[in-house]
Recover the amino acids of this structure.
DNA sequence: ATAAACGGTGACCATATGGTCATTAAGAAA
DNA sequence: TTTCTTAATGACCATATGGTCACCGTTTAT
């Protein structure tokens, strides 16, 4: 365990460390991120960082837990308002998630990077999230209404999932350069996505 | 330039080096691949490797060019047989590509890893492929017939593209463990994919 | 005033990286 | 056999990594 408790530090300091770390991991991914760069960026010593956190991995999981919590805090109140129909529910949930990424770019990048991690850390992330994020999603989908589906349930859901994944990927790639306001970005996202969704809704 | 010409080496030796390098880059990606591990694996000295290739990057691009060429060699004869209808053409081309990956797992992994490279090397790859792979694809799509499309051309194409991407990703994730024969894998791939495609074809 | 406890530090460690180059070994030419 | 040419080698380089720990200034207790 860490020899010093991170959460008892001065809040400004905590924030500086968290911010710098999120940017580092969000930019370079887990393996290529450097603890040296992190301490340089947030102005603390190497020794301190490793008194607050056991090791790089410990810091990483603290961060993603922190981000997941903040995300959950802002999304939970919205969950009740989601439509019941499976497809619409998945779409609305994904939109909620993505607009949160747009509004919180640094944390969003971290989450996107996280989802793409491979190798040892990728397995550990999957393991770590077995009992939290996935459960939220499963709970959400249990309340869904599947009756409107003509075709094979899972397959249509897969197709919509892939549509959302692909659209998001392309959208973020196009959107990295442009320096539009957050509101404009969100509007663009919803407008462009719904054009695709309108086409998809014709199958159902 | 390299001080010794790689292609003039004993062919067995060339093959050993290429094989080891493809496995390394395909497993770890560009940044996390190690030239030390490569030379250890293929049994040559560090000095030799860097006489055959200017640097790590030079080796990497030699490999992907080599793989792209082999792929092109085996796919080109099939291109003429592709259906004319845009959607069916994209599907058939993608299937061709993916079944080649299944038949050539190591090279396939390299290509998949390559497509996911980010950062500096990601940009260089994009730059490198501006004039080759993309051109093949564009040439292919110019001969396509777009008349059967009811909805907005590009959007439907995007949806199909994303379907293929998503299906491939999920398929390869599920398929990494199982040790089925290549023929069985190909059959499975085509069978499972066509179930999704049948659903999609209903929109058109 | 003195001692003890605490917290932060950065030089330092072992290890690994991509890359170099003087040395060696082998073959060809004399 | 002796010289010259060539190719392969691995010790070595500068740099970077994640991680440690003896040290020291500051605060608190005595």
């Amino acid at each position: 365990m860490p020899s010093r408790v991170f959460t008892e530090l001065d809040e400004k300091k905590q924030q500086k460390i968290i911010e710098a770390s999120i940017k580092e991991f969000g930019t370079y991914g887990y393996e290529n991120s450097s603890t040296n760069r992190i301490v340089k960026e947030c102005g603390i010593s190497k020794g301190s960082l490793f008194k607050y956190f056991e090791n790089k991995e410990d810091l990483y999981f603290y961060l993603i837990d922190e981000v997941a919590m903040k995300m959950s805090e802002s999304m939970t109140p919205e969950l009740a308002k989601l439509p019941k129909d499976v497809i619409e529910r998945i779409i609305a949930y994904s939109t909620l998630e993505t607009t949160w990424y747009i509004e919180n770019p640094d944390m969003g990048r971290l989450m996107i990077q996280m989802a793409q991690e491979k190798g040892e850390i990728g397995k550990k992330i999957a393991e770590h999230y077995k009992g939290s994020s996935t459960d939220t999603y499963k709970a959400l989908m249990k309340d869904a209404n599947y009756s409107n589906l003509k075709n094979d349930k899972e397959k249509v859901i897969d197709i919509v999932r892939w549509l959302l994944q692909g659209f998001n990927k392309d959208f973020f790639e196009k959107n990295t350069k442009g320096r539009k306001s957050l509101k404009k970005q969100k509007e663009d996202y919803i407008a462009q996505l719904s054009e695709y969704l309108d086409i998809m809704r014709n199958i159902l």
Notes: Chain B has a mean pLDDT of 92. Residues 4, 44-48, 51 of chain B lie near DNA strand D (CB under 10 Å from a C1'). The radius of gyration of chain B is 19 Å.
